[in-house]
Amino acid sequence: MRQVVYLDEIIFVNLVMNLTVLWLTSRFIGKKGSPARMITAAAVGCIYALVVFVPGLGLAAGLYAKLLTAVMMVLIAFGFAPWKKVLRSFLYLLLAGFAVGGIASGLHYLWQNTLVVQSDGRLAEIGYNKWLVLSCTVALCYCAGKWGATLWLKRAGQTADKIPLTVTLWGKKVSLEALVDTGNQLVDPLSQHPVVIVEYEVLKPLLPEEICGLFHEGKTRDGSHMILSLSETSYAKRLRLIPFQSLGRENGILLGIRPDVIEIRYNDKKQQVKDVVVGIYDQKLSPETAYRALLHPQLLAS
């Protein structure tokens, strides 16, 4: 019996599966790729899936071709980075691929054609719905990425809920205690970099007079006013407005600034991060001043 393969179905299924794998990878490495990058990377995976069907291109199905395709997908989705981070992203991509493929295979096996006895005593074959398998695979992977990644990142920092943090701005430094807050999922809307929330009083010695003036006058809850007030400063490109709905305030705005670098110390390791935004909070985060910052948990997995 000749089997018919529909090209459009192959492209669609591969695109969805590749996007699912890339999204899972982004959740566990703590780095979000832009939608355009993710779709482009997924499309590269689709092209590979189509090439293996071309007569005379059997080498495309080899191990090296598969690994090269995976590396290309990582670089396209998440950009170039130090080789250790690229390797880490690559390994997570492979693990995510195995997980997604395993879930899909398991559901396929569970719902494959089975024989049932009808009311008249005859046997009937029930086929599975491939679109149901695809939908359930994506749904299960979404749950794994949404809650599983949070638990994983929390576990990465569970040995030190409060860790030393150093923020450097314009060459000046301030050191403080930061709480690893799994509820802090804030990211900069423009760069998608994670946000570390720090009390204004701690950062005050590092901040320019214009920013300190806004906090002194209590005008930091009006995003438009802050933009107009600081738009002509020499450091305007470093500023960000971070929307949030936490810290006891709904539809709030945090003034954020890109630091020179932040330094995190945990598990006897020192880690410097530049791809981060510091959100300046105008109140105390802890009544007992036990900590002065809320650290994004994904930074521990960088």
From TrEMBL:
Keyword set includes Protease: yes
Compartmental location: Cell membrane
A GO CC term assigned to this protein in UniProt: plasma membrane
Keywords for this protein: Aspartyl protease, Cell membrane, Hydrolase, Membrane, Protease, Sporulation, Transmembrane, Transmembrane helix
Pfam families per the UniProt record, alphabetical: Peptidase_U4
EC number: 3.4.23.-
Transmembrane feature ranges: 6-26, 38-57, 63-83, 90-111, 131-153
GO molecular function, one term: aspartic-type endopeptidase activity
Task performed by this protein: Probable aspartic protease that is responsible for the proteolytic cleavage of the RNA polymerase sigma E factor (SigE/spoIIGB) to yield the active peptide in the mother cell during sporulation. Responds to a signal from the forespore that is triggered by the extracellular signal protein SpoIIR.
Protein name: Sporulation sigma-E factor-processing peptidase
